[in-house]
Amino acid sequence: MGRIFIITVICLLILSCGTGSRKGIAAKKSVEFDQTILRKDILPAEGTNGQLLYLPVYSNIPYLIDTGMFDMSAFVAIHNTDLKIPILLTQVLYFDQDGKLVDNYLEKGNMEIPPLATKNFYIPYEDKSGTGANFLIEWIADTLVNEPLIESVTLCLKPNNTLAILSQGKIIRNNR
């Protein structure tokens, strides 16, 4: 219960930040990341050059047994954790709880994620894909890279009925 409260508070803080201009904080120019500031004696994580992941999202959650559903919005965040090498998303497929394809987020082709960058995909509040909704996400890289962090945040932000769920992807296939 405490974990859900903390996640909810964090999500509310993020959502309350908005996209408007920063007031009272000077906007900083983007600077180039110098990898030489990181320690060299720390061994790299085992790498992979591609994966297929399953990621649950919860479009609707039942409550008060058979009397209603919490409709929820969600977003999927795919973080490239590699310091040097981009990864390429080849599939981002969204399925409902019955296993039927709802959306192909990459219909126009593959999508590159630069090093240390993140791509987000949004599921609207109106979606009715159910408690078993899920994504299949496939990515590849030209060489071994650090495995990306792939997670979803599902939210219902109604007065007195706020709910947030955080899920991480599960590897189905791993290339080496």
CATH architecture: Sandwich
* Count of folded domains: 1
How much β-strand is present in the residues? 35-45%
Name of the level-1 CATH class:
Mainly Beta
Gyration radius, in Å: 18 Å
Looking at the structure, what is the overall shape?
globular
Instruction: Report the CATH topology name.
Output: Hypothetical Protein Tm1070, Chain: A
Helix content: under 10%
Order of helices and strands: HEEEEEEEEEEEE
Number of strands: 12
Task: Report the uncertain regions.
Answer: none
Largest sheet: 6 strands, antiparallel
Distance between the termini: 38 Å
Number of helices: 1
How would you explain this protein's 3D organization?
The protein is mainly β and 176 residues long. The chain has a single domain, classed as Sandwich (Hypothetical Protein Tm1070, Chain: A). The chain is 9% helix and 44% strand. Strands 1, 5, 6, 7, 9 and 12 form a 6-stranded antiparallel β-sheet that branches. It has a 4-stranded antiparallel β-sheet with strand order 8-4-10-11, covered by helices on one side. Strands 2-3 form a two-stranded antiparallel ribbon. β2 (60-63) and β3 form a beta hairpin. The chain is globular and about 60 Å long. The termini are far apart. The model has no long low-confidence stretch (mean pLDDT 81).
Set down the secondary structure blueprint.
Blueprint: H1 2-16, E1 48-56, E2 60-63, E3 68-71, E4 73-79, E5 87-95, E6 101-104, E7 111-113, E8 118-123, E9 134-145, E10 149-156, E11 163-168, E12 170-175
Antiparallel strand pairs: 1-9, 1-12, 2-3, 4-8, 4-10, 5-6, 5-7, 5-9, 10-11
